[in-house]
Amino acid sequence: MMSTALLLIDIQNDFCPGGSLAVPEGDSIIPPLNRVIASLHAQGVPILASRDWHPIRTTHFQAWGGVWPPHCVQNTPGAAFRAGLALPPDAVVFSKGMAENADSYSAFEATDAAGEALTPWLKAHGIQHLVVAGLATDYCVKSSVLDARREGFSVQVLQDAVRGVELHPGDTEKALAAMSAAGAQLIDSRQIN
Ligand code: VGL
Ligand code: ZN
User: String of b and e for 102-131 (b: at least 16 CB within 10 Å)?
Assistant: First the structure.
């Protein structure tokens, strides 16, 4: 058995209904994910949670030339993990998007509280396989999965536990196809026991 980690991407209030960059049905991923989190955590699988963690002023936001409304601004309620998400106390949080001049969609651009980036963390813990879910399918999930494949990790994407922004209709479908073409396996969360 390959050593596995669960990587939860940006399950934050601003990406859920009511948030400033709400992903349609973004919160519907939480019930299936809570089952997966409990099951994998009980087996000793590390639970990693990335978060979008922006400064107020960043070229990622429309006001400074980007495509997005303000979202996930550091230390605001919108940047908090969705309350119903049952993150265990030993979940490791990776933050990204702190630069004022970069989008940083990928969790592989994120660092933990000690400043360690995701790849060295995973290597230090002997992880070879990632189970990935979260928001949004067509941005941060896609970007993280493609980076994971480039870095040589095997990847399973929980298709029922991701949702897309769909800035352009069809983006989610294309993102799933791109992840699959890169060698990620698209599975249903119920396949995780
Ligand atoms: C994301 C748009 C802007 C994401 C982050 O987490 O997918 N999307 N910032
Ligand atoms: Zn963002």
Answer: ebbbbbbbbbbeeeeebeebbeeeebebbb
pLDDT tens for each residue of 62-82? 999 999 999 999 999 999 999
As a whole number, mean pLDDT of residues 1-11 equals 93
Mean pLDDT of the chain: 98
* DSSP secondary structure code for residue 30 in this structure: H
How many angstroms separate the CA atoms of 142 and 165, rounded?
12
Q: Is the CB of 140 under 6 A from ligand 1?
A: yes
- Whether the per-residue pLDDT at 147 is higher than 70: the answer is yes
- Across the range 130-151, mean pLDDT stands at 98
3-state SS, residue 13: helix
Q: Which of 12, 71, 144 to mutate to test the pocket of ligand 1 (most atoms within 8 A of CB)?
A: 71
Nearest residue CA, atom 6 of ligand 1? Answer: 140
Is pTM, for the whole model, over 0.85?
Answer: yes
Does the beta carbon of 61 sit less than 6 angstroms from any atom of ligand 1? no
Among the listed residues 10, 14, 27, 52, the single catalytic one is 10
Q: How many CA atoms lie within 13 A of 35 on its CB side?
A: 13
